[in-house]
Amino acid sequence: MTRGFPVTEDDAERIVLHVDADCFYAACERLREPELRGEPVVVGMGYEDGDDAGAVATASYEAREHGVESAQAITTALERLPRKGSDADGPTGFYRPVDMAFYEDVAADVRGVLHDLADTVREVSIDEAYMDVTERTDWDVVEGFARHVKQRVAREAGVTVSVGAAPTMSCAKVASDAEKPDGLVVVEPGEVREFFAPLDTEAVHGIGPVTARELREMGIHTAGELAAADPHELGERFGERGREVRRRARGEDDREVEPTGKPKSLNRESAFGEATADEAEQRERVETLAAAVAERAARRGALYRTIGVKAVEPPFEVNTRARSLSGPVADADLVREVALELFEEFAGEEVRKVGVRVSKLSFADADQATLGGFEGEGKRPEEETRTTEPSDGNDTEGQVSLDDF
User: Does the 2-21+103-249 domain belong in CATH 3.30.70.270?
Assistant: First the structure.
């Protein structure tokens, strides 16, 4: 772990973590196929027989050693790293198609951990997020807290993340990338500018290749040189953006971690150490998760209209069951009761992971409701849905929300 860098007195106490999954799609494929660990893995489209166009979505670090990169044409990737089983001499790699449905399921597990460990989470993409953990830890022990985040993600989601801790969002993001893969970098208050100083200007948030090239033309190659540059000269060349990136290079970033919006659902999931058919163990885990989900909803002031469960059978067959209620409620006992009833279908079957979810959330200010508080008291939940989702290459697009099953 590298220890680095209060920027301003107001920022001195703020603690931001940036969590970034390492080669996320490839990591998900290794979760499904453990034999791929340590092997070059390329996730993308266009390498199948009959395809003549496509691009790399993710390349594992082992594949990158052979010149394969994200967004690269798949034809180039195959030239540099032929597909396993080909007649090519030399190193070969494993190629897998993009399976967004499966990746979103793993991402939901990751985000479940992050939301459980932070008061505010900003989800940036399927594989990265910011956490404001100011109220959860302090600078004396933030390294241990960040390590706990990494360990819980590894245990509950099965993937590796790199974490950067800093007083600002822009610094935390750079820190998370500093020692990939499986990195942990803490940049303490007062050291942000020192941390940035030797880095290329492109490390500063808001600077891309074009701006970096223009800065080099001005004789500015590093973030330290940018921090010391004349703000008026930068303003004349780039406008307000020039002065802003200079402030970022000096460690001045007053942006707050703001959530991307209220969640559509809340869930908790838990994987067994090994797949189990022990019915008592399964029911106990479902009860624990139901209580945790209901507590999380209560903490957020959320009512819910749907209660659901997930059962993941070996190897990775995802089954979900859900039941709609007659109105929005906040009732922990009902969550437990319905979850156990829905899980009965899988009780005694071999499962590797279980989950409980509440969805169709509403956040209107109102007294907490129970099912009996609605017209039609005594009605049972009325609508049940069932889905079975083997991970078979579904190409659903879009960013996964924290709690999607």
Answer: yes
Residue 313 has, within 13 A of its CA and on its CB side, a CA count of 14
Contact 188, 5 (CB under 8 A): yes
| pLDDT tens track for 51-75 | 656 889 999 999 999 999 988 888 8
Strands 161-166 and 184-186: parallel
Tracing tokens 């009732």 back to the chain, one arrives at 331
Residue of 29, 104, 128, 191 marked catalytic? 128
The CATH homologous superfamily to which domain 265-390 belongs is DNA polymerase, Y-family, little finger domain (3.30.1490.100)
Distance from the Cα of residue 356 to its chain's centroid: 19
Euclidean distance between CA atoms 389 and 349, whole angstroms: 17
User: In the annotation, is 214 catalytic?
Assistant: no
Instruction: State the pTM of this model.
Output: 0.67
Six token digits for residue 363? 């956040």
Tokens standing for residue 88? 């090519």
pLDDT 10s digits, 181-192? 999 999 999 899
- Phi, psi (5° rounding) for residue 204? -80, 130
Region at 103 (left for phi over 0; alpha for psi -120 to 50; beta for the rest): alpha
Q: Does domain 25-98 have CATH number 2.40.128.50?
A: no
